[in-house]
Amino acid sequence: MRHIHLDDGMRLRFPSRSEDFDQGVEVGMIATLMDMGMSDFTRRISKANVDQIRPLATKFGYHLVEGEGDEEWVEIAFRNGPARPKLKLVHSAG
Length: 94
Hints:
With 94 residues, the chain is an alpha+beta fold. 33% of the residues lie in helices and 32% in strands. It is built from two helices and five strands. The protein has a three-stranded antiparallel beta sheet with strand order 3-5-4, with helices on one face. Strand 4 and strand 5 form a beta hairpin. The N and C termini lie far apart (66 Å).
C-alpha cells in the first residue's frame, strides 16, 4: 500500500488494494488533469508509472520535466504548450 499524490498536502491510499490498482488510480488521475486542459502541473508519481505516463503525455501535447525523487518516486512537471521565455528588463541608452 502506498500514498497517491493528488495535490500539495493531499494524498490518498487504498489499504486493501493491490499495487496495480494504485498505479491505475495514479495514471487515471493524471490523464484526467491532462484531459481537463491544465497547462502546467506537477505531481509526485511512482517511478513504475513513468513509462506508462510518457506516451499519454505526448498524446495530450505535454512535455515532461523530471525533478527530484528517490528509489520509488519522482517529481514530474507536466508542461503543455510552448515554453515561456524568461523576460528580462532592458534599459535603453538614449
